[in-house]
Amino acid sequence: MSTKSLIDEILRGLKSVGGVVASAVVTRDGLLVSSDTSPDVDAETFAAMSASMMGAAETAIIEVKGGNAGRVIVESNNSKMIALGAGPKVLLVVLASKEIQLGLILLKLNDAARKISSVVDL
Amino acid sequence: MFKSNGQTTKVPTGISIVDTLLDGGMPNGDSFLIRAHPLADPLSMVIEFLHNQLKNGGVGVFLVNNKSPASVLEESAILKMGLRDFKRNGQLFFIDAYSALFGLRSNEAYFVEDPNNPVSVSKVVAQALSECSKKGKVFFVYDSLNTSIDEFGNAILAEANTWKRIAIAFNAILCFIYTEWNYPKDISEAVANLFSSIVDLITLERIVATQVVTVSKNEGTPVSKRMVPIKNAVTGGIKGYVPKILVTGPFHAGKTTLVHTLSTRAVSVQRMGTTVALDFGHVNHRGFTLDLFGTVGQPRFDPILERLGGEALGAILVVDSTKPEEFPRAKEMMHKAGVHGLPYVLAANKQDLPDALSVEEVKKKMNISDEVAIVGTVGTDKVSVVKVLDLLLDKILST
Fold first, then answer.
1. Which domains, from first to last, does chain A contain?
2. Can you tell me the ipTM of this complex?
3. Domain that holds residue B164
């Protein structure tokens, strides 16, 4: 199986986590690797913007000597978006419903990110 | 339809990058092979070929031996290249060499009752080709050759020769789908020798732009064409894919305007009139879909530039022709973004301003080698910025 289809598989698995609406894996420099979003979403644009958001957050926190950014969480009026590193090359970005328990979903996301990271590096 | 090298006429596939690779299109009255890596997806390409021929009034004949005709119709609907209506109005005929494997009958126009026998498959194919050729110009799909090889071994290749002769006689185009599993060398060579043109679909072991298309044989001559990454846009079919072109240059050079003028759809993160994160735009140009990444100009955003520059295939460097003092910064940005050394085109922008330096002056002041194309542009003038993209695409394709 190709790396991409393995990542597709991991994203499909995330779908079963309650409250997860959409997910994507993007390279840290903004290219889409795989996405599980509704067809009307422009996944490439989402990928580019997620990567620049993460890049900006990492740079900002390093500038104030605040350590290394692990994830970015965006809370909107109807959802939560979470972007986290999955190894040195790619990011995992997930859109979840507003009601979701952060602690629980982060556990699942860290697990998925770890899997993605090892799949990409193999 | 147009002539190429005075021998065979060519029929465009309708997928412009494939037509370019084939020097015009599919060989008329001949057979060609779509040879796919195990992870590639030849069916969607063939559906687009077929759909284009049917749209132009042609007749389709589609043999299936490893899936049902219904699943082909479903796939075509997903690709938004629906074949069902063509079947209903008598332009598309299936040869069902599948149902009988499960002891089922078939309602399709042609039915192979004994799919385990290559001669009986061949007989139905010959019948379908000769009958359908009376209705119009036939585009025939054989899906798939490797299922037959698994079944019959080399015997099927002798039959394929018969069909080729029918194609010549009826001026039909025969397209064979073949997935290159690990066959013994003699079989894969025999398959390659059978066809005068071969389109290859390859998957690369990387994480973006994984599918590429190339042509390894054209009208009997082995060729070595470049590999073009492709993307199957859900609407609009298969396009060449350039996942990243970086648009960079100093503050207020006009990068955002250029991205928006070029793009069919673009988004920008702008605060107080300037880009703060990224401009991103999709462009459809010459059968390619290109994604533009417009960077931020001010030095304080350089860390993001360094993060986002990776994996670009080319760059557009935009400078404000009225501000020569910014030119050194422009060159520095190319380095910081890590795109120095990649194909790039210089856009000497804001040529509509009275104090703009001429293209020659910009070139001289920036001390740029003759190999670099430089275009005088006005950010809002589509003709001038499309020229930049044109030259860049030429450069990317020639490297």
1. 3-121 (3.30.450.30)
2. 0.82
3. 2-235
